[in-house]
């Protein structure tokens, strides 16, 4: 912990780092609070807005080795109009792809409010040579990515080489230029809430615009307690430095109900100022259809068939 | 953005959205209230000798729920006689395993009717349904299960000695956890083979009377448990009754002292669980976000109407501002209102009298120069409600730091060293509970050794379990409830 605080911060956002304090996390208390937030019931009139918000903060994601330009194009069409039959449905926040497909997405999303996000920097392990990782980030940005999702170097962080982990994020921030940087902590590999809290602070101090839970490439991903833990770190960061960092939850979020729970956790912890695509994202591939189904159900009182919604 | 997107597609500006929670009132359908209730004596619901009835009200609305009998000395006499007859008539000689069957039955019936009990508890007492549903009722059932397990093992509970029942136990319980306190008292008494006369608090008799129905359904032999409702005079008559072998009381220190004087020299056994002014001690290395939740749970749980509430926050000076800031922010999100609403965090205060007492003490805090913080919240127009309150700039000499408020009012004091924390924590006539928040295990043990309190929680607060003994030091009373220690007040140890 002391080492973490001693990280050389000159490369970070200058005066936003001095004196950042990291508080420990009590697992029992954290999980209790997260569970109790998941029992709140949302007002029906608020539910429709909540579903629209869930769509507006969604990073529609496809990160398969088998991705094709056609699949990405189809995804982009859905991103603009998630429900082909109902154009009152708002567009999603971004489409998230591998760098090679950034040009395809950028073209398909030109003149739309939907941002292009690219994973880069040796996703999902982050263990490629540093130069190669930085080059990949720069390439993705040059190809049209508005947002870049990189991973924390867990090898460095977990072995206590905090300076290295920090420097790499700071370098990635430079490589991003004006593009937004999201740092994936891969919380399922961090081993404790304390490490999640520490790595959250480290990533934020190093310049992350967003901190993100997971790659979606390992079994364990976002959970309510992890979301709460990271939201509390973001709240501390904002209180201590005045800088508002975003939160992206990804992996395993498949149902509208889960999305509501996360909206409640973020709303109660960080306030409604975070319930906006600028500060909150849900990374998901299969969530959209469930949200659309619930939305349609709210509007006309009936559930539709799964076949009524596009699979890609 | 292109023209195709209508206005509804506008990406909303920052912070346009706020979550509104639905009113989510729990249905009162499972509760079937009678218009009038008698006394439960000898296995029957009977009219009181005087026929006097008083209404019991819903503190969230001020409306009467039902009329309840007021027992007098003659009724108490009848109840004690019924208990004595049941005890001598076979209950005391029943094998432990047979007694256990009844207790298991009661526990299961409580679980089966949990919803009904939870709703009724909230209607009669004003506590949030979230608490009665998730804590009071499940824990009450758990106590019956736990002590059912001891009933046939009493011969092994106290090494080398046999545990014999005492006879008739008089049990007087408070209004803050009506059914749970009934369970805390009844379960060990019955497991040990005693007969009981129970007197619920005047403002919260209904779940005890519903419990009478459960006891009957469990086919508990008539007279083993008798329930007499009434005012303080009925309690006094019960405590003073010569046919009683054991007195157990939970309530205020003032009444506890009077009972102590009454019982002295009579040969009756006595246990008292009285007031408290617990210190919740936060060290700088603690997990501050969970500390915040713990403080909230410590003082705003059941609206602070808890004898072991963490009503004095002692926080290390280095993190005092941070903790108070986090706490105020958290208080702003607490939802005060209809206790039957599942989203409600703080329900109604139990009675007008209690609300008056809280308001009076809050006013004294302001008058003595402490700084009051309460969140902006709209209180319901009817009923007895008090917003969560936080006092800073409190000195140990202030009344709000000394007296038990029994409401959602927290006093914040600071300390610099662990020694100072110990001195301040113990600077009270009470000694019921304490909380210690630190990530350092050795400090938890060091502090716990020095706390003059019956219960010490580490990195949590207000956690209860039937297997864990509970009770106080000094003016918080004596005797333990829960665990193996909870058997002792109800047995005579014989060679």
Structural summary, described in words:
The complex is a heterodimer of chains A (312) and B (495). Chain A has helices spanning 2-5, 27-37, 44-56, 69-80, 102-108, 130-142, 154-158, 162-176, 193-206, 224-241, 256-270, 287-300, and strands at residues 58-61, 94-97, 115-119, 147-151, 180-184, 210-212, 246-250, 280-284. Chain A is an alpha/beta fold. Chain A has a single domain, classed as Alpha-Beta Barrel (TIM Barrel). In chain A, α9 crosses α10 and α10 runs parallel beside α11 (256-270). The termini of chain A are far apart. By secondary structure, chain B is α/β, with parallel strands linked by helices.
Binned, the helix content of chain B reads 25-40%
User: How far is the N terminus from the C terminus of chain B?
Assistant: 89 Å
CATH C-level name of chain A: Alpha Beta
Which CATH architecture of the largest domain in chain B would you pick? 3-Layer(aba) Sandwich
Strand arrangement in the largest pleated sheet of chain B: 14-15-16-13-12-17-18
Largest sheet of chain B: 7 strands, mixed
Proportion of residues in β-strands of chain A: 5-15%
Helix content of chain A: 40-55%
Binned strand content of chain B: 15-25%
Tell me the name of the CATH homologous superfamily of chain A.
Aldolase class I
Q: What is the CATH top level name of the largest domain in chain B?
A: Alpha Beta
Q: What kind of sheet is the major sheet of chain A?
A: 8 strands, parallel, barrel
Number of domains of chain B: 2
Give me the secondary-structure category of chain B.
alpha/beta
CATH architecture of chain A: Alpha-Beta Barrel
Number of strands of chain B: 20
Q: What distance separates the N and C termini of chain A? A: 44 Å
Domain tally of chain A: 1
Features:
heterodimer, A: 312 residues, alpha/beta, TIM Barrel, 12 helices, B: 495 residues, Aldehyde Dehydrogenase, Chain A, domain 1, 2 domains, 7-stranded mixed sheet, 17% strand, disordered N terminus
């Amino acid at each position: 912990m002391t080492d973490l605080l001693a990280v050389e911060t000159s490369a970070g956002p200058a005066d936003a780092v001095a004196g950042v304090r990291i508080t420990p996390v009590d697992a029992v208390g954290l999980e209790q609070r997260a569970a109790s937030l998941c029992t709140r019931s949302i007002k029906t009139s608020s539910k429709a807005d909540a579903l629209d918000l869930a769509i507006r903060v969604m990073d529609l994601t496809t990160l398969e080795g088998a991705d094709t330009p056609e699949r990405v194009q189809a995804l982009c069409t859905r991103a603009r109009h998630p429900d082909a039959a109902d154009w009152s449905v708002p567009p999603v926040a971004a489409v998230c792809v591998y760098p090679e497909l950034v040009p395809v997405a950028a073209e398909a999303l030109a003149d739309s409010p939907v941002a292009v996000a690219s994973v880069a920097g040796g996703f999902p392990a982050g263990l490629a040579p540093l130069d190669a990782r930085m080059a990949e980030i720069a390439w993705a940005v040059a190809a049209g990515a508005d947002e870049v999702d990189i991973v924390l170097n867990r090898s460095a962080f977990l072995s206590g080489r905090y300076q290295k982990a920090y420097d790499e994020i700071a370098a990635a921030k430079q490589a991003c230029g004006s593009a937004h940087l999201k740092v994936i902590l891969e919380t399922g590999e961090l081993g404790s809430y304390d490490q999640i809290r520490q790595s959250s602070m480290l990533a934020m101090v190093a310049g992350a615009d967003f901190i993100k839970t997971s790659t979606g490439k390992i079994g364990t991903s976002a959970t309510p307690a992890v979301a709460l833990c990271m939201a509390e770190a973001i709240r501390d960061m904002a209180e201590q430095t005045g800088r508002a960092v975003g939160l992206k939850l990804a992996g395993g979020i498949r149902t509208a109900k889960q999305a509501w729970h996360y909206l409640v956790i973020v709303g109660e912890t960080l306030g409604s100022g975070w319930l906006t695509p600028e500060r909150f994202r849900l990374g998901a591939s299969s969530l959209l259809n469930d949200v659309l189904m619930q939305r349609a159900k709210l509007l006309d009182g009936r559930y539709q068939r799964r076949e009524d919604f596009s699979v890609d | 953005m292109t023209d195709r997107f209508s206005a509804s597609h506008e990406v909303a500006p920052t912070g346009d959205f706020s979550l509104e929670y639905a009113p989510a009132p729990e249905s009162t359908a499972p509760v079937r209230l009678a218009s009038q209730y008698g006394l439960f004596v000898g296995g029957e619901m009977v009219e009181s000798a005087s026929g006097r009835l008083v209404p019991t009200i819903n503190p969230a609305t001020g409306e009467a729920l039902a009329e309840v009998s007021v027992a007098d000395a003659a009724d108490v006499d009848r109840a004690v006689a019924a208990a004595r007859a049941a005890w001598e008539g076979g209950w005391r000689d029943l094998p432990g395993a047979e007694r256990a069957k009844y207790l298991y039955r009661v526990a299961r019936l409580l679980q089966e009717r949990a919803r009904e009990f939870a709703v009724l508890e909230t209607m009669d007492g004003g506590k949030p349904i979230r608490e009665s549903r998730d804590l009071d009722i499940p824990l009450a059932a758990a106590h019956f299960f736990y002590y059912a397990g001891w009933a046939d093992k009493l011969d092994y509970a106290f090494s080398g000695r046999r545990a014999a029942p005492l006879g008739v136990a008089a049990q007087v319980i408070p209004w803050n956890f009506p059914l749970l306190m009934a369970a805390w008292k009844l379960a060990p008494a019955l497991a040990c083979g005693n007969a009981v006369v129970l007197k619920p608090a005047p403002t919260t008799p209904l779940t005890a009377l519903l419990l009478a129905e459960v006891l009957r359904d469990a086919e508990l032999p008539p007279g083993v448990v008798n329930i007499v409702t009434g005012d303080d005079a009925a309690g006094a008559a019960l405590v003073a009754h010569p046919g009683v072998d054991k007195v157990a009381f939970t309530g205020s220190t003032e009444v506890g002292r009077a009972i102590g004087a009454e019982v002295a020299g009579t040969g009756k056994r006595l246990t008292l669980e009285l007031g408290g002014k617990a210190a919740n001690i936060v060290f700088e290395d603690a997990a501050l976000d969970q500390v915040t939740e713990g403080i909230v749970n410590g003082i705003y749980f059941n609206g602070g109407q808890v004898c072991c509430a963490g009503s004095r926050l002692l926080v290390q000076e280095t993190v005092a501002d941070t903790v108070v800031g986090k706490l105020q922010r958290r208080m702003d999100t607490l939802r005060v209102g209809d206790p039957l609403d599942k989203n409600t965090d703080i329900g109604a205060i139990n009675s007008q009298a209690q609300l008056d007492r809280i308001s009076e003490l809050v006013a004294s805090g302001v008058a003595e120069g402490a700084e009051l913080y309460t969140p902006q919240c709209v209180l319901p127009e009817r009923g007895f409600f008090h917003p969560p309150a936080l006092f800073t700039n409190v000195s140990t000499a202030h009344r709000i730091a000394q007296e038990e408020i029994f409401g959602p009012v927290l006093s914040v004091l600071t300390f610099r060293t662990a020694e100072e924390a110990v001195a301040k924590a113990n600077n009270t006539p009470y000694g019921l509970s304490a909380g210690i928040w630190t990530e350092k295990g050795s400090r938890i043990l060091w502090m716990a050794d020095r706390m003059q309190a019956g219960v010490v929680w580490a990195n949590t607060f207000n956690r209860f379990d039937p297997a864990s003994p509970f009770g106080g030091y000094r003016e918080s009373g004596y005797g333990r409830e829960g665990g193996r220690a909870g058997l002792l007040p109800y047995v005579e140890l014989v060679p």
